[in-house]
Every structure is written in C-alpha cells, then in structure tokens.
Specification:
Elements lengths: L18 H9 L4 E10 L4 E11 L7 H10 L3 H15 L8 E6 L7 H8 L7 E5 L8 H13 L3 E7 L6 H7 L3 E4 L1 H4 L6 H16 L3 E4 L5 H10 L3 E2 L16 H14 L14 E3 H5 L8 E3 L5 E7 L5 E5 L2 E2 L5 H9 L10 E4 L5 E5 L1 H8 L2 H4 L6
Parallel strand pairs: 2-3, 3-4, 4-5, 5-6, 6-7, 7-8, 9-10, 13-14
Antiparallel strand pairs: 1-2, 1-8, 10-11, 11-12, 14-15
Helix pairs in contact: 2-3, 3-4, 9-10, 12-13
Amino acid sequence: MSPDVDGKGPVVGLDDPSWRPALERVLAGEGLAVVAQPIIDVAHARVGGYELLSRFTGPPSASPDVWFAAARRHGLDGELTACTVRAMHALVADRPQATFWTMNVEPHLLPLPVVREAVCGHGRLDEVVVELTEHVEAEDDAALEEVLTEIRALGGRIAMDDAGTGYSGLSQMLSLRPDVVKLDRSLVTGLDRDPVRRTVVRLLGDLSGQMDAWLLAEGVETRAELAELVDLGVPLVQGWAVGRPAPGWPALDDLTRTFLREQVARSRVGAHVLTLVRPARVRAAVDWEAGACADEDVLVDGRGRPTAVVGPGPDGTLHRLPALVVAPSAAPADVLTRAMARPAGLQHAPVVCTDARGRVLGTVSIAGLVDDLVGGRSAGLEVAR
C-alpha cells in the first residue's frame, strides 16, 4: 500500500535499525491512523465516496510512502498492508450513507494470504473499491487474477491507479478491465491550459466508457482544472480543490458545491461559448498599478465591468490588453473569428465572457476555442453509468 506523500521532518534511511522496532509497534496497534479524502460525484455535486489513507505518528517522522518502503526493505510490507486494511475496515461502518470507499494495495502483495484475508475476510464488498497501485509490478498474474475474481464475486470493484502513465498502460487497462480508471495527476495539472492533456483525457474517458468504467480525476488542485474536468464530462474528481484528507468523513463545502452546480449547468447549455468559460480573477485598476496582477486577470471598472485583460505583450512582460467581451450565448466559431480579427499581439489574449448585467463570468482561451471547433466537445464522453 502506498498512500499519498505529505510527511514532515527528516526522513530516516531505510536501512536504519530504528525502522524494525517502529514497524513492529505499528503492527502491534500503536502509531497508525486513518484519514479520508472525499471523492466527488460531479453531476450531483456531492460526496460519492472516500479514499482512505494511512498516517503514521512515528518515530521515525516520515511520509506514508517511506513507511511502506521501509516495510518492504525489512520484509514487513505484507503485514503492514494487512494492518492498515484491517484498520480501514474497522472505521467504514460510520461513514455517510450512499458512499463507497477505496483502499490502495500493491498488486504484488494482494495474493499474499495475510493481505487477501484482510481485504476479503470481512464479508461482502459491495461498497469497496480496491485500488491497484504500481510501485512494484505483480510477478504472478494468475495469483493476482484469482484474488481479483474473489473481490468481484464479493461485490467489490477494482480501480486502476495512474492511468496514462508508467506500467498502467493501455495493455494493462485492457487486460484488467477496471471498474474505476484513475487519471494520473500529471494529466490533470494544467489541464485547463493544455489542449493535448484535454485530448488525452477525452481518449481515456472514451475508452473507460466503452469498458463501462468510471473515470476519476485525482490531484485536482485548482478551480480552473475542476471546471475543465466538468466540461469534459469526467464524473468523479478528487483533490485539494474539493477536499483534503482529514480525520472523520469530510463533507463538501457549500462554496465548492455551488461552483460545481454552476459548472454542470454551463456544460449542459450546448454549443455556446459559456461551455468554454474558465474561472478568472477579477481585479481593480489599483491592483494593476500596485503590480499585484497576474496573467489572465480581468481588470474591471467601478461598476464591475471589464476594461482590460492582463497578458504578455510582444516584449514578454505583462500588459493591460483591451478586453474582447462576449455574451454567454455567443457561438464559439463567431468568438474565434472576432478574436483572430484583433490586431497582431492581441489575437491570443483571453476573451472575457459577461452576464446580462456586464459582470464577469470568466475567460475563454483561444486554445479552448480552437479545440472546440476541431471537434473536441462534439465527441462527448460516455463515462457515467
């Protein structure tokens, strides 16, 4: 098992003799805690499930991945995985109704009797997702397949971690036929600014849909990434933008719930530029004069109406660029035509979208307009069952 990395303090070398007694203390029931990170059901703007993650109080002071690496070095990784899985099973009865929960297990450990018993020895697994991480590749595919068959027979589901990178390639997806496909965070980071990443997400989403699998984007850290994932039709999201790991069962805050509902409503509008709008920071003229503005900020007047967009000029430094303002119902093709008709140096500046009262709804990137017109959004994603 290898939960996310967020440890603090110096890391003790894996060969340090202090690791063995530290690991044995955890196996005896001391120094292990479990936290939960919410997984959001986008369409309904609610918590659909939780990923359970282990935390170790130490000493040594180290992140969970280091603890599991030390356990592997000292031949205790199977026992430590089983210990954490049992701790998770002991907590889940108190989670909110109508939610699933996920655990991370290394594929090479899952066939071990102690791990298999910890995962499968608690009866039905109807609300459980076993997420296969890939730090060590499984050596016995037949033994792994046998355990996966048992998990599914008990009602459990299988998730494939880090889809699109490393060992989790297309061949693994096709052979495993997972129930949940987790997008690697490297595909999510900067998604709103990178048409190539958007294309990859669409392809993985389409393949997941053909396998009747859920697509889950992890590592979502910004509202702009979240908005792009909603627009792409990704049904499940997870990350700091929607909820951090915490003790208990974290809920979705009201501001994020409202934001999600607005984004979902926009994504259903149809062939309007509103479906391409990304969140934008709205700043006043004094912010510009104080040097407090960043790229793609929208400058507004005293009535909140846009006057300029901050963007790089021909010299590479940030400038106040005249704002091209469009209505939410404008056709993307028309907006792109107007944007390209601007003087050289302004053609790639973001377009500002406003509501009927002239208030800023957000910006539309030129890359997003081009991406839309070459068929990106017409293809759609059939990822939700």
